[in-house]
Design goal:
Distance between the termini: 19 Å
Protein name: Putative hydrolase of the HAD superfamily
CATH superfamily of the largest domain: HAD superfamily/HAD-like
Strand order of the largest sheet: 3-2-1-4-5
Mean pLDDT: 92
CATH class of the largest domain: Alpha Beta
Low-confidence stretches: none
InterPro entries: ACAD10-like, HAD-like_sf, HAD-SF_hydro_IA, HAD-SF_ppase_IA/epoxid_hydro_N, HAD_sf, PGP-like_dom2
GO molecular function: hydrolase activity
Shape: globular
Organism: Bradyrhizobium erythrophlei
Pfam families: Hydrolase
Order of helices and strands: EHHHHHHEHEHHEHEH
Number of domains: 2
CATH topology of the largest domain: Rossmann fold
Strand content: 5-15%
Radius of gyration: 17 Å
Largest sheet: 5 strands, parallel
């Protein structure tokens, strides 16, 4: 770490970073049902600002509308998948080594979490999860949930809200996410970004960025 560059905060995505990626569950579901590979991811990625997923994560539609919209969007890409069937695939398992890294980071720096999540009553939402998740969320100085504020990543405003809430300069922040599209606005603001492929790789890069031992 160079002397003229000071880390003040580490900002984390939740799903696919502190938990295992839902992509594996998507692939299993598709294989079991004989669906085209990646139909769920392709539906999520198509028109990603205004699709069913985006609207649901901003709490603009209820579960019934999400179910039908997602079915129509996936059908247009070649195979119908009900939105309701996708929700239970989202939860993922907490990665203990990432939670430990977060604990160690919190001892030295400010911490934030920006999560594209679902309205609290939806299956697969953080609100419906265990006490352990609540304990992990308590390690953050500030949490921004898309469903509560009506904005979602990669909208640049959500990143600005976080740095303002933490009272830090984006140039002095590290941001971790498992999706490249969500890293881009953070990088353009001047943050150091880490694309999370797996826990060990992410922790190694975070150690390099912060100068901390995180294992």
């Amino acid at each position: 770490m160079s002397g003229d560059w000071m880390i003040e905060a580490v900002i984390w995505d939740f799903g696919g970073v502190l938990t295992t990626s839902p992509f594996e569950a998507f692939a299993r579901f598709e294989a079991e049902r004989g669906l085209p590979a990646d139909i769920i991811r392709r539906t999520n990625a198509s028109n990603h600002w205004e699709n069913a997923w985006a609207k649901f994560e901003r709490a603009e539609v209820d579960i019934e509308a999400f179910d039908q919209l997602f079915a129509a969007e996936s059908r247009a890409l070649g195979a119908e998948v009900r939105g309701r069937d996708v929700l239970p695939l989202l939860s993922g398992d907490l990665r203990p080594e990432m939670v430990e890294a977060l604990r160690r980071v919190k001892a030295r720096f400010k911490t934030g979490c920006i999560t594209n999540n679902l309205p609290a009553n939806a299956i697969g939402s953080l609100g419906g999860r265990s006490l352990y998740v609540a304990e992990v969320m308590a390690l953050f100085d500030h949490v921004i949930e898309s469903a509560k504020i009506g904005l979602r990543k990669p909208d640049p405003r959500i990143y600005r809200m976080m740095v303002e809430a933490l009272g830090v300069d984006p140039k002095n922040c590290v941001y971790l996410d498992d999706l490249g599209v969500n890293l881009k606005p953070a990088r353009e603001m001047g943050m150091t970004t880490i694309k999370v492929l797996n826990a060990q790789q992410a922790i190694t890069e975070l150690e390099a960025a912060t100068g901390l031992s995180l294992r």
